[in-house]
Amino acid sequence: MNVFTSTEGQDSPAHEQVVFCQDQKTGLKAIIGIYSTALGPALGGTRFYPYASEEDALRDVLDLARSMAYKNALAGLDHGGGKAVIWGDPERIKSEALLRAYGRFVQSLNGRYYTACDVGTYVADMDVIARETRFVTGRSAEHGGAGDSSVLTAWGLFQGMRAAAEHTWGAPTLAGRRVGVAGLGKVGKFLVGHLIDDGAEVVATDVSAKATAWTREKYPQVDLVTDTAALITSDIDVYAPCALGGALNDDTVPVLRAKVVVGGANNQLAHPGIEKLLADRGVLYAPDYVVNAGGVIQVADEIEGFNFERAKLRASRIYETTRDILRLADADGVPPVAAADQLAERRMAEVGRLRAIHLR
Questions:
Q1: What is the domain partition of the chain in residue ranges?
Q2: Fewest CB atoms less than 10 Å from the CB: which of 17, 141, 275, 286?
Q3: What is the H or E stretch that residue 4 is in?
Q4: CA angle centred on 40, ends 38 and 41, rounded to 5°
Q5: pLDDT per residue as tens digits for the range 278-329
Q6: DSSP assignment of 58-81
């Protein structure tokens, strides 16, 4: 079943298209959200997660699709913003048949949306989905893809963190700083390596015993703590939320001891107004959709014909983009989120307008 619905009445009414997808025999229940195609086909990953309700899944896909539009705009990509969620426990229901059914739904959009990996989906899953659609990226190297996009997500995140450190302490390095990493999954584990190489002290946590065990073996110098609450109330200079969204909320911000927040998780602000609460406490927040764009830069490059060095060079520019946004925020007296939104909306409007020019 393929149902197109308006988002009228939702918190994000500006979405171009929302598609509900269902295949009862495989257990597939998915939602594809397209926020904007002003800059080109929407690009964003597929999240496979056991949401408590369909309403939660819909809310997440709407928020994530909007973030992808702004992320792609600020990364300089010729892609709009979209996202998809598959509602269910990937450990129980993920199968070849389900992924291929999902690929058929992606194909039915005729290129308005390109999918890739996200929480709960992996490179191998993209290879399966690609058997039913050509509008998929983030595939394995043996299938002509770019492989794990978290590699450049972590690299770009580290560049954003360098820019935030320069803005706060005068030098683009984390050397001698204590960085708290919440989440040691796809992105967090690579970020830890960059931080240690740069001379930072790292304290970290993860809900997965497997992830913490891997970190303990790979980086014995990392100080592992029991949970995020212990992490954010510890003596850290930088907080890097790298798990699920909503990490910055009415409970965590008042007790956060870090002066800088730069993380890989999407939608870190639990609701509008949190950015002001951070600013009022003197905490510098680098917008997540700016600093974690390395992954989407990588998978977008794959669509052209992947070249790792070219993609890494593009991801390295997150340093300059973050620096410019932080300077603009200071100059205008607004939180960095407002400055980033302004730049993204300007590019979507200016470049999107060109599509009105008729081409034979």
A1: 2-69+80-143, 150-293+320-345
A2: 141
A3: strand 2-5
A4: 115
A5: 999 999 999 999 999 999 999 999 998 999 999 999 999 999 999 999 999 9
A6: HHHHHHHHHHHHHHHHHTT-S-EE
d(CA 325, CA 341): 10
Amino acid, res. 307: N
- Catalytic residue list contains 189: no
- Encode 111-147: b = buried (16+ Cβ within 10 Å), e = exposed: ebbbbbbbbbbbbebbbbbbebbebbbbbbeeeebbb
Q: What is the 3-state secondary structure (H, E, C) of 274-287?
A: HHHHHHHCCCEECC
* Measured distance CA(139)–CA(155) in Å, rounded: 19
Q: What class, spelled out in words, does domain 2-69+80-143 have in CATH?
A: alpha beta
What is the tens place of the pLDDT at every residue in 28-58? 999 999 999 999 999 999 999 999 999 999 9
Find the catalytic residue in 83, 94, 189, 259. Answer: 83
- In the block, residue with structure tokens 């798990």: 243
Question: What's the rounded Cα separation, in Å, for the pair 212 and 203?
Answer: 11
Residue with tokens 């909007």: 66
What are residue 205's DSSP bridge partners? 182
Instruction: Decide: 31 and 5 in contact? Cβ < 8 Å.
Output: no
From CA 238, how far away is CA 318, in angstroms rounded? 18
Task: Please give the angle made by the CA atoms of 325, 331 and 335, to the nearest 5 degrees.
Answer: 55
Asked if 137 contacts 303 with a C-beta cutoff of 8 angstroms, the reply is yes
- The class (CATH top level) of 150-293+320-345 is alpha beta
